[in-house]
Design goal:
Layout: H1 47-62, H2 65-81, H3 86-98, H4 102-115, H5 120-132, H6 136-149, H7 154-166, H8 170-183, H9 188-200, H10 204-217, H11 222-234, H12 238-251, H13 256-268, H14 272-285, H15 290-302, H16 306-319, H17 324-337, H18 341-353, H19 359-371
Amino acid sequence: MRALYDNARRCRALMLALCLAVPALAACGGGAAEIRTARLELPPANPLAVRKFVEGSRDLARGGRANEERALRLFDEALRIDANLWEAHYNLGVIYRRRNQLVKAIEHFEAARTIQPGAREPLLALAEAHRAHGRRDDASTILRAAVEQRPNDVDVRVALATLLREAEEYDDALEQAREALVRDPANVRALTEVGRIYRAKGQHDVAELVFRKALVLAPQSAEIHNDLGLLALARGDTQAAFIEFAAAIQVDAAFAPAHMNQASVLLHAGDYPAARAEYDAALRSDADNVDARIGLAISMRGQGQPQDAKRELERVLDASPEHPAALFNLAILRAEFLEQRPQSRELFQRFLDTGEATDAQREVAERYLREIPAEAAPARRPGRPGGRS
């Protein structure tokens, strides 16, 4: 498993940092409309709904699953009192996005955008959630419409550039990122996106020049050091990558993508204890980071702790029963490390049924399915219903 992380793959968001800060309460209230540039003038929100919203936001800021559950309940209560409190819809979307419950996240971000079409946060978050759900066309439609109606909104242009880069539409992505820089020449996010586009195109020298320029503007950016590490890996320079990921962690010890990438380098070097420490660090920053939990399980397996690895993978599957990487790794673990080959057969089949297998993974899974015999159907006994005596 080599899951490399740029800032676009952080769980909190691709195009918007879905931080848990309290949104402004200046424009609570009702009304529905299509996307427009101007914010709607909305009637005052119900004071009791606002009070519950503020309490929920405080719980959310404290962190932890119990506080998050309380916040979710309070936001729901606020909306039952005042159905047009768009900020509550937005924060519910943030919670469900963090939990990877994308359908619910989309529902709440869409509701927030409908109530207050002039707010940028729900629009960007909605596009990101569609992208994460595999609905790239929906995300593109939202962002292109927003660019037409908000041509000077740099964040929206950068969001669209990121989406286009992921779709390998590099020329269009560069156009959007450059237009963002025309409007804000010192915008670090736009400049970093230009570097990512050149890295994706294989123009590594140009990408490094751009990233170094961005680093001059933001010398304490863990994200840019992480991008430089990914660039070094693209060049095949593992040592330089290791140094850049370490620099990112030194700048921000809670920056999970750098921990994840450092762990990936260590894992492939066979340094399982050090990789495990990095995955643990990523999970301290983001306890819901499924990729970190799978990496942790692989590290445990490498350290000769298959039962611990099994528990971690089962924990992932308890939350996401059809998670492809968890199914594949648990199947391998059962077949090769726990002497449970018959039990692994179902897992390999479930993995193939997800449709997410790479060619190499499919070949491995199909080989195991050929080698492991299917359990024979139990023979009918005479005198039983459906049988003959």
